[in-house]
Write a structure and sequence with these properties.
It is an enzyme of class 3 (hydrolase). Keywords: 4Fe-4S, DNA damage, DNA repair, Glycosidase, Hydrolase, Iron, Iron-sulfur, Metal-binding. It catalyses: Hydrolyzes free adenine bases from 7,8-dihydro-8-oxoguanine:adenine mismatched double-stranded DNA, leaving an apurinic site. Belongs to the Nth/MutY family. The chain is an alpha+beta fold and about 350 residues long. It has two domains: about 210 residues, Orthogonal Bundle (Endonuclease III, domain 1); about 120 residues, Nucleoside Triphosphate Pyrophosphohydrolase, CATH 3.90.79. The chain has 15 helices and nine strands. The strands form two sheets. Strands 1, 2, 5, 6, 7, 8 and 9 form a seven-stranded mixed sheet that branches. Strands 3-4 form a two-stranded antiparallel ribbon. Strand 7 and strand 8 form a beta hairpin. Helix 2 crosses helix 3 and helix 8 crosses helix 11. The longest helix is centred in the first third of the chain and has 16 residues. The radius of gyration is 24 Å and the shape is elongated. The N and C termini lie far apart (about 55 Å).
Amino acid sequence: MEISNRLTYWYLRNKRDLPWRKSQDPYQIWLSEIILQQTQIKQGLPYFNKFIEAYPSVFDLANAPLEEVLKLWQGLGYYSRARNLHETAKFVANESDGVFPEDYKGLVKLKGVGDYTASAIASFCYGEPVAVVDGNVYRVLSRIFGVETPINSTPGIKEFKNLAREILNKEDPATHNQAIMEFGAMHCKPKTPECDSCVFNDKCVALKENKIKELPVKIKKAKVKKRYFNYLILNSEDRIILERRSGKGIWNGLFQFPLVETEEPIKEEHLMKTEKFQKIIDGQKYTVELFNDKPVVHKLSHQHLYTKFWILDCKELPHEGVGLDEVLNYPVPVLIENFLNEYLPDDYK
């Protein structure tokens, strides 16, 4: 209880004023937690406000077209979160009359809701004594207790969850859970922790043993994969070709230009000879120009995309296109959004 008391003491004096902390509405808490998965608060907060304004209730979100939801999500990345968000909203609205499950066991069954998110909603909304463990909690616990088990290993996940349970204030799990996460985010930071003024500097193992920089331990990920994208912007009379991306890879459900992916950087003459290029152009007459001399490097967690945009002015499009004045209404990856902001005339923005 001593650790929880210190965390609460710090939290009540230092916590940030965030909109979802003023509510116990499970819809708002759930929405905030999904948005903040793999996203910092400063980036996620504007999106939370946009979603609450556009969809004040779970019914509003459930009734919205997926395309509209993806467009509002644009720029946050990890778009499977948005698709899961929409599916769960439809389930809660249509199958549960808008009522979210009221305990961890029910919440964790929802699509896109894992252990951490279910624990957060259950403790924040319903006072259920379940411990949250996120990146901030891993860092705080590993440093205070000197735990060197890798946080992304099966033994580590189990050990840290048990440790989080041991120190949980079961009388007030909501405040405790928010306190330890906030403490990790604002005070026990990854690279610049404020150890001199820390409420745990008398008992922190990492501080005593000079291991602040070494903890938490994380197993290194596999090597980042390089991919080479060649987007074809087929343009005729201010109309261009857009197509919906499908499959289980990145950006499923978003729109993009016709794509030729190659195993290495490619020059114009070689690009035009590829079978995929010939299939896309479908015999139409065109002139081609490379929009960006240097590839745009778009970095994702597990892969880096080296992207060239090829402008093809066609006499006719091979199939129906989208007006330049409409293209910004479509949900697209931020990589393509950035290109459009450069490519489109001001009248179309």
